[in-house]
């Protein structure tokens, strides 16, 4: 069981809820804080005070007064009008993340919702009621309005949801789980949708997946270094000490672990004194992406434990203040940074693939890693696929945050486009998994061709894991299923886990 406080949610806990579907509950303090902030809202309504989003309209309608009798209708209409998302729905994992992060934000007690409202959101999460949330339509400012509105529809008994894998009307999903829809009261609709949780959920899922991807990239690179009889001097720790970026140290240490005891490297048959950049500079290249990953993690960790709606309730002072915590810019820039840093991992991987398949650069291996070249094309087109994915990534990596289109009759005249940035980062990550799949396939083929010399301790284990599923390519066959299968192995974490059991934890 995970207890929400609004301030202490960790990546490890988010992963447990997203993937393993662990149960979630409010802490005692969170319950108390939610009740306090709601009390202030009720007092303001009773006193008929003018408060944005409570007794006024939204956005450009902020100057429009709302009568007491229409206050609750205002909140429901907000959800109905803002549920304007389009496109493919977010995955189950991301929807679970959105629900969890929104509940955690509300748990801080600065949003003015009722306790039963937050409890219903968590009950839905625990009962595996996953609202159908379209992935497109958020500007990433004023929060992720459209995605979160689709989440709230189900709380009202509207919209659609998956209940334990079955797509149903929202009302039917609640009924099957034994839950009752709610009627929104003052400020609750606004509090539920005025936040950055779609950006944060997609960003966190991508960040967690990238953590694994970075280790896979080091494993793939080490296999290529081994297969190409690489020079490991470039991974010497003394080099790092003269330019001490943390990611450099981590990557170099990983590579040294992975190729230790390699008979191929120890008995190399070439006179060269240094390798091309895609082998020699990997600590610097992979390391920079690792440092970017660390920075983005720090930003995400702050965001997932923040209150991001408007206006904010300060119950101890009796104040309610309009501000801009819903604006996605603090996440939009890091999401673009994440996109670029993942793209570079794929870029350098594809260049290593080129060296493996090119007889002018692979130091005695057959062209395209096939023994009967001409009759068979080997891995020729697999390199094309990697190149295509890398080129697509370059287009996707164009920063979303440099764009802004004013909305709500120019009241909301700068928006972050952070949700687009997060979605692009996830697309780039999925493409990059397939690029690394191609490198792993080519590296395994090359290591087979280097026999009887044996690869290093870690690279040998990685080779064995791939070969459990994918046989040696002795003649042409369909390569696509092999690439997809290795991508599954990468995403599952199986490859990293197996290698770490042999060489110790990778950084």
TrEMBL record:
There is a cross-link at residues 141-143 (5-imidazolinone (Ala-Gly)). Coiled coil: none annotated. GO terms for biological process: L-histidine catabolic process to glutamate and formamide; L-histidine catabolic process to glutamate and formate. InterPro entries: Aromatic_Lyase (IPR001106), Fumarase/histidase_N (IPR024083), HutH (IPR005921), L-Aspartase-like (IPR008948), Phe/His_NH3-lyase_AS (IPR022313). Contains an active site 4-methylidene-imidazol-5-one (MIO), which is formed autocatalytically by cyclization and dehydration of residues Ala-Ser-Gly. GO terms for molecular function: histidine ammonia-lyase activity. The keyword Ion transport does not apply. It catalyses: L-histidine = trans-urocanate + NH4(+). Pathway: Amino-acid degradation; L-histidine degradation into L-glutamate; N-formimidoyl-L-glutamate from L-histidine: step 1/3. Keywords: Cytoplasm, Histidine metabolism, Lyase. GO terms for cellular component: cytoplasm. SUPFAM superfamilies: L-aspartase-like. The modification 2,3-didehydroalanine (Ser) is found at residue 142. The keyword Lyase applies. It is found in: Cytoplasm. Its EC number is 4.3.1.3. Signal peptide: none annotated. Belongs to the PAL/histidase family. PANTHER family: HISTIDINE AMMONIA-LYASE (PTHR10362). HAMAP family: His_ammonia_lyase. This is Histidine ammonia-lyase. The gene is hutH.
